[in-house]
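Example record for the data management plan.
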Amino acid sequence: MDWKKTALFLKDGLAGVIPTDTIYGLCASALDKKAVEKVYELRKRDSRKPMIILIGSPDDLRKFDIVLSAWQKKILEQIWPGKVSVVLPCSDKKFAYLHRGTKTLAFRLPKKRELLKILSISGPLIAPSANPEGKRPAKTIAEAKKYFGKNIFYYGRGNLAGAPSTLIDLTGKTNKIKILRK
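Corresponding structural encoding:
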């Protein structure tokens, strides 16, 4: 399988394990409610916990009705693209299936070229680590297959043993950055 087929599968609402810019992720279209619910089910994830959304450009934030303040824009220009996920306010009810009542969403604009090519076709993707909740993230496609079996598709790039992204909160009204995970 190649990156283009992967992107088309994701765009069509399928879930799959793919290499992100940090670790393998169990990805699906963030704009497809059924695909998002399938990932929650596969990961046995706490239904109250939102997931990080990978975007292909800062313009993708508009798809989630995110309006950035001047200070938020300035910070994002400094840290993106990169391995930093940013929590932003999103109170729109139509995205409740993503924000799970938290009224916030976390986004990351990756630097990895192949992943950006996938995102340019698939659109924004939810991208939690490729493991059931409580288990360690899969470092290989073989490990991911042990977790998820034949329910999804797989696109591998060998052994990926990175760390999850840094997570910062930019939801405050002041120009304060809150680091949630290093």
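Summary line stored alongside the record: The radius of gyration is 15 Å.
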